[in-house]
Structures are given as structure tokens and as C-alpha cells.
Write a structure and sequence with these properties.
heterodimer; A: mainly beta; 4-stranded antiparallel β-sheet; globular; B: mainly beta; 6-stranded mixed β-sheet; 12 strands
């Protein structure tokens, strides 16, 4: 069972607001990821981290930013939300120092920007 | 460039039927991993299987089985005697020790009682 938690589960906000989506994992995984997914559609990587103080942008251009100050915490921030940011955001982590390890996913945050 | 294709957008079957979900991938690398994930209505993706490119043995886990054919770049997933709880979106994914996974567009499976 995955121990990765995302809050809030649902968020409805107005345009221009600053928001932070929380993601925490208790497995001690070094690698963490943020994916964006429209309902039932493919996942697009927007940010990832190899470990503390390491963050990289993914394939999908995003106006969001992330930070990794602690191993267990990988929050995603939108400085000024817009309707185009409406989507589901999935956080994931993987163990080990290599690649191609299986991903553990959180339950996601469904964001709606009005 | 890497790519994963899941040609079946949606599949509906009646409970107890067998169903196969297709996955075709493209990569120039000789070393890579293939995955299947399940996303039930709750939204959380669940890992099902990981297979490396050097292991072409088919695998069976309960009602699930996977057929990896390198010659056709396919990694198909079969559910035997489907159940309503199998209803979900299933994603095939490819990773080549790169920086991220490439996910397919997903296949939505509906199992009707």
C-alpha cells in the first residue's frame, strides 16, 4: 500500500489566486514527481526531483513551481491560477537510486479554476 | 523519441468475459522497462507489472497475464474472467532509464454485470 498523500483532494478557486498543492510521502523515497492529467487521459510530467534541493522541469510546460526542502515533502505552487490550469494533479514517488523503478501515486488533487 | 500507443480508447465487456488491452511502444533503446498501471474511479494509479526489455517471458498473476513480444514492440495485457472491480482506466508506460516515464493515452475498461 502506497504511503503518499496529497491535499487537498478537490480545490475550486478563482482566477488569479495563489495556490499550493501538497504532497508528502512516508517511504523515504528520493525521487518524486508531479504529473498533470485531464480526466481519463494520459499523464504528462511537469516536475520531478532526484532528492532534497533538486528540482527539474518535465516534458510539459507548466507555469507552476516546486520545491524540495525535505525528502518527504514536494509541494507544487501556482502563483496565479488561470482556468487553463484546471486539471488533475498527481504526485508520485519511486524508491532506489536507479531509474525505471515502479511509481507510487497519491490520490491526486482535482483543481478547478473559475 | 519514445512513444506508447494504446489504440483501444474504450472497451466494454460483460462480466466473466476475457479481455485483452493492447500496448505498442516505440523506442530506439535496447534497454528499457515496460509497465502497466490501473487507475480505478478513485483516481489513484496502482502499479500492476514491470518488465525489462531482456525478459520476454510471459507472466501470469491470478486473472492477469501479460504478453511481451519484442518483435512486434507490444506488451499486451489480458484479464481472464473479468469482474466489475476491473473497471478502470489502464495505462501502459515505457521508461528507458531516462528522466521520466512515457505513458500511453490509456484504455477505459468497463465491465458490466
Amino acid at each position: 500500500e502506497a504511503d503518499i498523500y496529497q491535499t487537498p483532494r478537490y480545490l475550486v478557486i478563482g482566477t488569479g489566486k495563489k495556490i499550493t498543492l501538497e504532497c508528502s510521502q512516508t517511504m523515504g523515497h528520493d525521487k518524486m514527481y508531479w504529473y498533470q492529467q485531464d480526466p481519463g487521459m494520459e499523464l504528462h510530467l511537469i516536475h520531478y526531483s532526484y532528492g532534497v534541493n533538486s528540482t527539474e522541469k518535465g516534458d510539459l510546460s507548466s507555469e507552476s513551481t516546486v520545491s524540495r526542502i525535505r525528502t518527504e515533502h514536494f509541494p507544487l505552487t501556482l502563483e496565479s491560477a488561470r482556468p487553463s490550469h484546471t486539471s488533475q494533479y498527481l504526485c508520485a514517488s519511486s524508491e532506489g537510486t536507479g531509474w525505471s523503478e515502479k511509481l507510487f501515486f497519491g490520490s491526486g488533487t482535482q483543481l478547478s479554476v473559475l | 523519441a519514445q512513444k506508447v500507443t494504446q489504440a483501444q480508447t474504450e472497451i466494454s465487456v460483460v462480466e466473466k468475459e476475457d479481455v485483452t488491452l493492447d500496448c505498442v511502444y516505440e523506442t530506439r533503446d535496447t534497454t528499457y522497462y515496460l509497465f502497466w498501471y490501473k487507475q480505478p474511479p478513485s483516481g489513484e494509479l496502482v502499479f500492476l507489472i514491470r518488465r525489462n526489455s531482456f525478459d520476454e517471458q510471459n507472466e501470469i498473476s491470478g486473472r492477469y497475464s501479460w504478453n511481451f513480444q519484442k518483435s512486434t514492440s507490444s506488451f499486451n495485457f489480458t484479464i481472464t474472467a473479468s469482474q466489475v472491480v476491473d473497471s478502470a482506466v489502464y495505462f501502459c508506460a515505457l521508461d528507458n532509464y531516462g528522466q521520466n516515464f512515457v505513458f500511453g493515452p490509456g484504455t477505459r475498461l468497463s465491465v458490466l454485470p
